[in-house]
Amino acid sequence: MKLIIAAIKPFKLEEVREALTAVGVRGMMVTEIKGFGLQSGHTEIYRGAEYAVNFVPKIKLEIVVQDGLAEQVVETIRKTARTDKIGDGKIFVLDVEQAVRVRTGETNDDAL
């Protein structure tokens, strides 16, 4: 099993969710986060005063899938979340040793 962690732009969430559902993803965790990468934040003007925005709002997706689906999920997120502008996000893929469904006790692939 693989854990796929993706940081994407917030306005892309629904489009990415629909695309992932279409390729067979049955669940995901979503968290609102703030961070920065190459863009290192930016400046904005509010009521005439300029101030630095050091952390940019993002959405973090956490998805656990069977090994065979991982590459397709990564490619789906990459294509769907892409805007061709700086700050589109990052995707990380990690190995998962074990998964357990709390309600039934099912483990690993059966728990997904």
Overview of this protein structure:
The longest helix has 15 residues, at 67-81. This protein has a single domain, classed as Alpha-Beta Plaits, CATH 3.30.70.120. The chain is α+β, with helices and mostly antiparallel strands. Helix content is 22%, strand content 37%. The strands form 2 sheets. The chain has a 4-stranded antiparallel β-sheet with strand order 2-5-1-6, covered by helices on one side. A two-stranded antiparallel sheet has the order 3-4. A hairpin with a 2-residue loop joins strand 3 (42-46) and strand 4. Helix 1 (13-22) packs antiparallel against helix 2. It has 2 helices and 6 strands.
Overview features:
about 110 residues; 2 helices; two-stranded antiparallel sheet; 6 strands; about 35% strand; four-stranded antiparallel sheet
